[in-house]
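Thread: Newbie trying to understand structure tokens

Hi all, I'm a second-year student working on a class project, and my supervisor (Dr. K.) asked me to get a predicted structure for one chain before our next meeting. I've only ever worked with sequences, so writing a 3D structure as a token string is new to me. If someone could post the tokens and maybe explain what I'm looking at, I'd be very grateful. Here's the chain:
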Amino acid sequence: MKIVVGIVGLLIFNFHISFALTAFEWVDYKARIFNRINLQTKTFEVKKFDGSWERQFEVKFDQVNLADIPNSCAPLSFERSKRMIFSIPGTGQVYEFDKAKKVLQRMDQTFFRGYNFFALQYVKNDTLFSLGGEGFWRSNNVLSFFDFKYKEWEQIKTFGEAPEGLLSLHAAINPSQTKVIAIEAFHQGEYQVPHLGYYELDLSSRIWEKKGNVDLGALKKLGQSSANFVLRNNLMFFNDLQIGLFVDPEENQIYKYIGPKKQFFLMESVLFERGNQILSKRHDKNSTGDHYKIDSMSVDELRKNSQLVGRFYSKDPMFSNIEYLSIALGLLLFISVWFNYRFSLKKNKMPKYDAINNLPAGGKEFIELFKLNGGDYLVSTDEISILLGCEKKAFDTQRQYRAQFINAMNQYFADHYQIEEAVFRIADEDDKRFVKYGLKKEALD
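---
Reply by user tm_fold:
Sure, no problem. This is what the structure looks like when written as tokens:
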């Protein structure tokens, strides 16, 4: 697949003035030849980097209406099944050039215009895809493909954590066509936000993954005016080429070239790849014509003559600051509740040698009666009087002693074990005129 993306300016749709686009042009870097279809003369022409245009043959136009093509645009070109495909940004228009048949044919039936400018387009398995783009003051992350049979674009669903929008200016497909890498798009000016997300799209599973955030302030300090880049040999080269910065996204590292080839990275240079070589095309300033110079550098040579600058992106923290604060407050609340609970248990289940000392006089003996006779045992009023040592006093006095004792015992169990009415009274089964006293099972435990 060969793709040539020109410098895309502002697209202006004005269909009432004369046609401005003069040619569909693409470059065969391997053969070092420019190719074009001259739309005005309807001819196929070629030019070497150091030569002039030469007419090859006439081209037949099939369903091509030049008035449908915007006055100013930079068509994207691709090779598909030994034919050239031209896609017009923001229009959905697709053209196919069959060199063998010498025919340029419009393939789409699109009428809608004004959307998906700067979309990342690529050909994979002979299918033309389009990802992202912008229009109507917003960018998108929509993935679609062109159906050559039905002559229209169809949307494909993606999954995972996708960027809200992406543009071809800072997105690319890797050479093996297994994934797309992208820095998310913003319209309000990239340096008005502190960072932009860096994402990868697995083209097999169509699952997006956010890898981290690119610090725009750090890029600006390195001399970069934006996060725009081109991908060559799996290395990202930022648009301010004269600085010589590039990124290895797999290693998450930024490097700067400091080698001897000072003319390799110029503002006007256009980088492309051929095998393990990175080629730099620039205008030959010593020539009077439209001639170019080509310089080459292996990836190994580039790495050898570069120094590490820093990290490209930082991974997202597991939680945001607000989430960390919420978690911290939640933990404090949990710890507070836990300690209160433990304190309550400790208070309710104090060692008996501590609590037993607070029993009212006769309390130990009262509890022993139930331990000896069982939890269902009922104590008579006479037994309680004997325990209290008041059995020889007047009956009214004995009643007062017993009442004070029962109240003290119930208060003791309520204070220490939160057991209400631990000592309860019940009518004697043999003589309902008399009462007996029992002890709740939880008080005995």
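A couple of things are worth pointing out once you decode it. Residues 321-348 form the longest helix (28 residues). Helices lie at 216-221, 299-304, 321-348, 352-355, 363-373, 381-388, 395-417, 441-444. Feel free to ask follow-ups in this thread.
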